[in-house]
Amino acid sequence: MASLMEELIATLERELVAYQELLPVAEKKTQVIIANDLAEIQRITEVEQEAIAKVAALEQKRADVMKNIAVVLNRPLTELTLPKLIPLISKQPAEQEALQRLHKELTATLRRVSEVNGHNRILIEQSLEMISYNMNLLQSTRIVPGNNYTRNAGQWDMTASQTGMFDAKQ
């Protein structure tokens, strides 16, 4: 059981480091989204994807270790979460303290990553809305051939079929 606890702690520590490395990338992405730097957004997204793959592998390892701990403790895996595991290992105070610390730090880090990602999602949605608005504005603007600066420039007799435009949302 001690080796399983050491493996769980080591996995959680690596997972915490991975999330802590992901946080500044997500915060940088906020600034890049605001600056509308598409090339940098693409580069940051690639970095994020690599970090997410690393986290997913660590999460799978953590799940495997938790399965083994559930077997040793003769508990159903569905009922064995980190907060429920901590009181069960009271005879191992060093491991218990490490798990408490890691749980607290992981919770705080994940909360912050989630907040930043939520903010980025809102910024991206607003950017897409603005792009959609601009596209619709461009599509609704019809230019009459010839001199557009006459007294009647605001009056058009062209039908939609003459413009060649289409509504992308339909």
What does this structure look like?
This protein is mainly α. It is built from five helices and no strands. Helix 1 runs antiparallel to helix 2 and helix 1 runs parallel beside helix 4. The protein is elongated. The termini are far apart. The C terminus is likely disordered.
Task: Quickly list its features.
single chain, 0% strand, elongated, disordered C terminus
Whole-number average pLDDT? 85
Order of helices and strands: HHHHH
Number of helices: 5
Poorly predicted regions are 160-170
Q: Which range best describes the helical content: under 10%, 10-25%, 25-40%, 40-55%, 55-70% or over 70%?
A: over 70%
Summarize the main sheet: none
Strand content: under 5%
How far the N terminus sits from the C terminus, by CA atoms, comes to: 60 Å
Gyration radius over CA: 27 Å
The count of β-strands is 0
Given helix and strand content, the structural type is mainly alpha
Form type: elongated
Summarize the structure.
The protein contains 5 helices and no strands.
Would you spell out the secondary-structure blueprint of this structure?
Elements: H1 2-35, H2 38-73, H3 82-88, H4 93-140, H5 160-163
